[in-house]
Amino acid sequence: MLQLASLGFNIDAKAIAKQQIPPNELVRGETIKGAQVLGVDERKLKRFIQNLFEQENKPATTPTDSVTTTSDTL
Fold it and tell me: Which residue, 23, 24, 31, 53, has fewest beta-carbon neighbours within 10 Å?
């Protein structure tokens, strides 16, 4: 438990990416057994999370990646 607590002190909080899961767009009101609760469409949530991971795994491109310079054509 102390190791977990010390980890919190070693992490740069500014470098942590933050994402609300589920996002507000996917939250909806439902009635289950007469009670009003908050729910989410599981398929849409799964798709949302998969898209987050796909975006994280894509290599970042720089503007120069698609630019051809004169030295490249010689």
Answer: 24
